[in-house]
Amino acid sequence: MCGIVGYIGKKNVENTLLESLKRLEYRGYDSAGIALVEDKKIISEKAVGKIINLEKNLENKEYTGEVGISHTRWATHGKPTRENAHPHLSCDGNIAIVHNGIIENYQSLREDLKKKGHKFVSETDSEVIAHLIEEFYKCDLKAAVLKTLKCVEGTYGIAVISKDNPEEIIAARKGSPLILGVGDGENFVASDVSAILGHTKQVVYLNDGEVARVTKDNFEITNTDNQKVKCEINQVEWSLEESQKSGHEHFMMKEIMEQPEVIINSTRGRLIIEDGDVKLGGLESVKDELRKIERIIIVACGTARFAGMVGEYMFEEYAEIPAEVEYASEFRYRKPIINERTAVIAISQSGETADTLAAIREAKRKGAITLGIVNAVGSTIARETDAGVYNHAGPEIAVASTKAFTSQITVLALMTVMFGRERKMSLVTGKRIVEEISELPKKVEKVLKQKDQIKKLAEKYAKYDNFMYLGRKYCFPLAEEGALKLKEISYVNAVGLASGEMKHGSIALIDKNFPVFAIAPKDSVYEKGISNIEETKARNGKIIILTTEGNKDVERLADDCIYIPKTLEMLTPILAVAPLQLFAYYVSLSKGLDVDKPRNLAKSVTVE
Ligand code: AGP
To answer: Does 231 participate in catalysis according to the annotation?
Structure first.
């Protein structure tokens, strides 16, 4: 997804921007660019592909700059070409802009601007912003930006510089995340805190409809009517080291291995074992309303949605609240029947996923109480929901979500206890769940020790072009998650199914070249799952079975087995997901693919 960094201050502007831009590489991008003001001119350079290509273009030019903006682009309107890469310049080359988001009325604006003589060089929606500012510019850059914002429809996070105003960057946000990094004699504008952590941990999160004028020693924020608004400087807790790989070859492996610690962090200070209860500070403010809810709808995308499916089963089984999970992208366009007795829970690692955010806004409009299960502190979803629980999983850099999934299920288990204990859940049941949650980190550690064995298994199966994942009840969402992991980083065609559904069509796919990965722990639906595995065995399918330690019964059916420790059925996904993640990781590795940055994908999907 596109990234923005702007810098004004005492350091070399070019180097600072390039270094900060590299910290956004994990978000996924296909071209990059930079614009600086130097000696009363705008200097701009762009390149298709990695930032290193941009660096090559800048070699031996020795720019220093007084102020600058930079961008990593993930193509939406127009192909990934040099022309379409940002920054975009005004016709006279005096103004440069970078933009995240989508300008929905760009076609009509472009036509109007062309009639006024503006020349466009790209196919992007973003370029209209540079020309509009040029049209309105009369020495005051901010005034021209404000007028521009009144003309555009859609979403934006923008940073703007002008050769005549080298003492400032103008930044504005609507629907696309943007922060200010506050330093000593230097200030930053960025789309993501990771970009600036090496320089400052003090940040201001801009809200939708806010516009900032940033100089090297100061910043001021107004609304789009130029009225001053109050802001707060926040201290970011993530360290720069936390954003690095800690000695692992890839972020994905680092994040898989962090899962025991992530469970500890997600539950720290939240378990009250003696009362069989939990304490979720982020939900205190809405506790009375939550007591009255009659229905839960979970909205999320991708992996977060699979975590939500586990939550759905937990809420119904233990809290006795009717629950359902929706694709956020569908929810926003339906006419969901919701009222003030409905809690709509958004699950999102990034807290910036456009569809999930839109779903939450729609739910709010309809009067539901909205809650967030979000990892990125201060993100838009975290701020726009009525209340919520942070995952505290730390930054997740690999595009494939791993530790966030585990922390999402952990938080959902905590919420289940909270909802349940407010209703009919007994002290004994509450205690059993909370005690078992506290045992999970050790058990996940044990699962992760099988890393090398799973590596061998993955190497053995890497030659297959197709895979079917099967699971029942709490393990059905895992079948989907296992298949998604394999697809996204190994480019293997994989389908995740509820075991019982297989015989309604998909079983036709099974033959000796179409292996099955069955997730069948010894739980209440184990026998049913085994019958489905028998059905695939009869079609000569190769079978990997993931089951509970000590269950030797499956060995007669399986070509290969993976064992996980016993836990409560509702918590099994937390133990069973690591082997699926490791399997996908090693298949990808053995194919020589880019594990952390798979093709066509972005870490956070901030467009519809
Ligand atoms: C999972 O590996 C994905 N990269 C993707 O499905 C992701 O979970 C989804 O885009 C939702 O992201 P979010 O949690 O940041 O909202």
So the answer is: no
